[in-house]
Amino acid sequence: MKKQCIDAVNAVYGREATDAEITAIKQRIGGAMKARAQRDRQAWLATPHHEKVATAARDAAESIRREAEETTRRQALQVVAIARLQAQVAAFPGTPLEGLARVIAFHADARGSAQSMETRAKAIFNDSMRQMTDTLTATNPKFFGLFERPEGVRDLVRELLGEATGNKDAANGAAEFKAIAEANRQRFNRGGGRIGFREDWGMPHHHSQLRVARAGQDAWRASLPPAERARAWLKDQPPPPEYARTAWVAEVMPKLNREKYVHEDGTAMDDVEVADMLRHAWTTIATGGYNKLTPGATVGKAMVANRGDESRQVHFQNADAYLDYQAKYGEKTAFDVIVGHLQGLARDIAAVETFGPNPDHAYRLLRDQAMQQMVLDNPATMGKLRNKAFTVDALFNMAIGRTLPVASERMAKFFDNMRSMLVANRLGSAVLTSVTDEGTMMRMAAVNNLPQMKLWANELRAFNLADQDEKRFANRAGLGLNTLVAAVNRFGNEQLGASWMAKVATGTLRASGLNAMTEARRRAFGTTMMSAYGKVARDAVSLASLNHYDHRVMLSKGITDTDFAVWRRAELEDWGHGNDTMLTPDAIARIPDERLAGLGDPQVLREEAITKLLGAVLEETDMAVIEPGLRERVITKANLQRGTLSGELARSAWLFKSFPLAMIMKHWQRALSEPTPVQRIRALTALTTSTTVLGMVALQAANLRDGKDPADMTDLRTWGAAMLKGGALSIFGDYLFSQQSQSGRGLVASMLGPVFSLGEESLALTWGNAIEAAQGEETDLGAELVRYAKYNTPGVSALVNLWYFRAAVDHLLMHDLQELLSPGYLQRMKSRGERDFGTTYWWEPGGSPFIDASGEDFAPERAPDLKKTVGAQQ
């Protein structure tokens, strides 16, 4: 900066500016000049230098003025947020830490009075997704989820990046996504965020930190001597940083849009300058930003409001360059990137709207105040209180998206694929057990005063695959979207990724009918609830006029008088079939500004009313058709680093256990929160009875599927197994009869999860049979090998264990193959089943026409013996 410019700055300051201040001003002006050059390079090149400087100085001054105003506004928002949160925590009838936990995560006990950050994020995300259902359906993986539609995805990406394709669906989808992303950007900024508007923004970029850090790994290893190459592969050794950086820069350079890389005066950067910029970008991406860390400074406490304000340094020249880069240096498909962007924005919006522009600061303040108050009240409990505070910390960190980085990509992928394989191989018949969802739906209908007959009618309509209007209406209302984004966290695999095994798992759940059944129930319950809320909004004058006991759950959702007033101004929709009072997000979004006069900013009012509506409906839907939430994820995943042996084993132990955990943490907590002891007993009894009866239905259906006669319902152990199955602990029902399950797995291994059971089966197949053979005992190695292959062959096992194929495959091939390899095995299996489990068969094992040419014994000899249900013997 010239001396006369510095003198001018000093005159404004009224003192001599520091070197840091002069540098900051130079950077401001330089940044403004670059922004002008990128906007219209040719016009900027034609502008005289003195005009460039003057224009950039005005831009910089205006930027400083806006930032000063924004800083003041953010400070005010933060003060208001903290005051609101302090009042909310103080009003909670339990301890301050419990009140703070409810600010963060949904609790089913209906004791709170505000919407949690978790629920708010989910509602905002579903509100975004519901507006994109046509687009996402057009690009979503088809063929049972095994293949993404590459032509649809490429056209969508091209349209997003400004390239016309002639594909109307892709063009409309791109316009939809940009409009939704822009609306969310503005909402985030209203909450105190700072994401600047970019006219040339098309879609978010995704960089895998590990893949960028390992750029050029294959070529580097290939250049090593054979012995060193083998060691590098075994140790999963990455290339030296300088080698990786050079390889990444060389690969990215040809893909760039060089029009975006200009100097302050508008002249183009040369290759050396662009490469140097990319080298810095590589360092930031590969280190996860640790290159910018100031040692000793607080880590991870930057304002959430500032997220998204970093300047983007990698500009791709076209869609093909972007997709090629994503394929090599991203971990997500284009579909996942789009959905992930909406999820991330929803989480950040929820954070700033709940805790203010600096959620970390507000949270720490409230936590410290809560701890101080509780320790002063009872100093002897400080140890227990610190443990509770750590749990609340974990809730906050997970809610805000703060997770540990992957330690080893190879190990993480191995366990991810193993868990996906187990989801595919073990859940082919889970649709039979899902009948127990009817029990929790009935219970939640009673709690929320929903008409049971209407719920059943909506469910029957949802099961009608030919009725596409029902699905379209519900999806547009933000209901039943989990399958669309491949979320299967009710089983412990929260988000299936893009690997082949993950696609097989997704495909299995779809092919079995489980996804369709689950989403139909979710749509039916959500539809019934929106209809009921519409009726309440139509008939009630205000929230205060509602009966507190009848609407206890609704009144705990954080719905304010203003929200209710907005609901009442919505024109209710008629979906037919008795659903003529539908209060939907679209109904709220269509309220004219003039009808909201006097209540506040119409746009903010509509957004908040939609968020409260979707939040309330989704919370209860996740209880009716059980879906684990943030609290369950903290128990199963918090502080478990992916890519470490301990972290992956712990995650694996929780596979398939998120569902029963959610049953306990949601339904038991809701039942135990009833106002009186009698009501609590009544609630628990109703829940237990309905799920146990339906568990019995699922148990008997599984027996019939496997060719077994129905279980003896006069035996209390059978009802114990039904109760466990209804409560999502069916795996332990077998141990009421024996120390081993009917598949031969031990209790300890089964409790530790399917990964450990797989290890037990592998040892039993190899080491166990070797010991038996050495001791001169008879082994069933051949039969066990067939069974092992049936349940653990990637891809094949998923197909043969589907509930409608399983019996046919067993009787056509598996049984006689086991008998062929281990003579006498079938009789021993039947004898053990009858001795330990009381099992008899209506379709005797064996008789494959492929092995026995006569095929005389293949067909069932009789129908199932229904008298077995009452203990009658043949």
Short note summarizing the structure:
This protein is an all-alpha fold and 874 residues long. The protein contains 39 helices and no strands. 61% of the residues lie in helices and 0% in strands.
Q: Figure out the total of helices.
A: 39
Rg, alpha carbons: 31 Å
Strand content: under 5%
**What distance separates the N and C termini?**
101 Å
How do the strands and helices of this protein lay out in sequence?
Blueprint: H1 3-13, H2 19-39, H3 41-45, H4 49-91, H5 96-104, H6 117-130, H7 133-139, H8 150-160, H9 168-190, H10 209-213, H11 217-222, H12 226-234, H13 241-252, H14 271-286, H15 319-329, H16 334-355, H17 359-377, H18 382-399, H19 409-426, H20 430-433, H21 437-447, H22 452-463, H23 468-476, H24 500-511, H25 514-539, H26 561-568, H27 585-589, H28 602-624, H29 630-637, H30 645-653, H31 658-672, H32 677-705, H33 716-726, H34 747-751, H35 754-774, H36 781-792, H37 796-800, H38 803-821, H39 825-837
Helix pairs in contact: 2-4, 4-5, 5-18, 6-16, 6-28, 7-9, 8-9, 9-16, 13-14, 16-17, 17-18, 18-29, 19-24, 19-30, 21-25, 21-28, 21-32, 22-25, 25-28, 26-28, 29-31, 31-32, 32-33, 35-36, 36-38
What does this structure look like?
This protein has 874 residues and is mostly helical. Among the domains are: 3-75, no CATH class; 207-330, no CATH class; 409-673, no CATH class; 791-874, no CATH class. The chain has 39 helices and no strands. Helix 13 crosses helix 14, helix 19 (409-426) runs parallel beside helix 30 and helix 21 (437-447) packs across helix 28 (602-624). The longest helix is centred in the N-terminal third of the chain and has 43 residues, at 49-91. It is globular, with a radius of gyration of 31 Å. The relative contact order is 0.08.
